[in-house]
Design a protein that fits this description.
Layout lengths: L2 E6 L15 E7 L13 H18 L4 H7 L1 E12 L9 E11 L2 E10 L6 E14 L10 H7 L10 H4 L3
Antiparallel strand pairs: 1-2, 2-4, 3-6, 4-5, 5-6
């Protein structure tokens, strides 16, 4: 067992604003197995799992489940993850995540993710991440444009950089 993910119908009360009006919101609750037990800290590789599963679940929520992708002959593969670990996450705590598609050009798409720890005195930003996905033709194993209806469903924001780029000096 790793992290339990539960989709939310809307942003939780008091959630920080995100740039995409149709971002997908979810809770993340890391299990005890996501830590060594010696240090009360979620393994960094678990954060990477969050990025993958959030991207997959968001696409599925938009009507593009794995079966639909396979039937279309294409699949999204990760080319790059950029993660800024801002605070430790601990097993058993419930975090809030938001994800959206920032941009989509030809065969590549940037997806942004923000994860917070809700706190009555102000939400704490646990991590920010950007993932570069490439849409690949499963027969040729080459990049290929995603179907137009998939692009429409993904509703890319059209931004060149994640919203935190100015605050951390990264793209």
């Amino acid at each position: 067992m790793t992290t339990t993910l539960q989709l939310l119908d809307r942003p939780p009360a008091g959630a920080p604003a995100v740039p995409h009006p149709d971002a997908m919101w979810a809770t993340l609750t890391p299990a005890a197995e996501t830590s060594s037990g010696r240090v009360d800290h979620v393994y960094n590789v678990e954060y990477v799992r969050w990025l993958d599963i959030l991207g997959q679940r968001h696409l599925a929520e938009l009507g593009w489940h794995t079966d639909n992708l396979l039937a279309s002959g294409g699949m999204w593969f990760v080319a790059r993850h950029e993660i800024d670990y801002r605070l430790e996450a601990k097993p058993g705590e419930t975090l809030i995540a938001a994800t959206w598609v920032r941009s989509l050009r030809r065969v590549k798409s940037w997806r942004d993710v923000m994860v917070w720890r809700p706190d009555p005195e102000g939400w704490q930003l646990v991590c920010t991440a950007a993932t570069l996905w490439v849409h690949v033709d499963l027969d040729t194993r080459r990049g290929t444009r995603p179907p137009a209806d998939m692009v429409d469903a993904m509703a890319p924001l059209g931004a060149d950089a994640p919203p935190w780029a100015q605050s951390v000096g990264r793209r």
